[in-house]
């Protein structure tokens, strides 16, 4: 009794001709095209990401500028003069400029 698996693998002759080289070249060209498209798309998306990041940075800077301006406006509004401050300032202005005709002021 002889065991055929003990003899080792059976060698199958490979014949390279037009019938085998055409499918191999088609498969190779598809793989190369896929890799080229992948690289091109990757570079396009990387450029798009850079553009989006720059746009976000500009937007963040604008919001920071607007926030600083709003803080200044709020500070000015919080430190506004009272009626007493305004009356004292007008009195002092009249005292320092006696020759100037200053109309009476009213606050609504």
How do the helices and strands line up, and which of them pair or pack?
Elements: H1 18-78, H2 83-96
Please tell me about this protein's structure:
It is a single chain. With 108 residues, the protein is mostly helical. It has one domain (17-96). It has helices at 18-78, 83-96. The longest helix is centred in the middle third of the chain and has 61 residues, at 18-78. The termini are far apart. The mean pLDDT is 85.
Give the SSE string. Answer: HH
Q: Helical stretch count? A: 2
Q: What is the approximate shape?
A: rod-shaped
- Rounded to the nearest angstrom, the radius of gyration is 43 Å
The computed structural class is: mainly alpha
Number of domains: 1
Features:
rod-shaped, 2 helices, mainly alpha, 108 residues
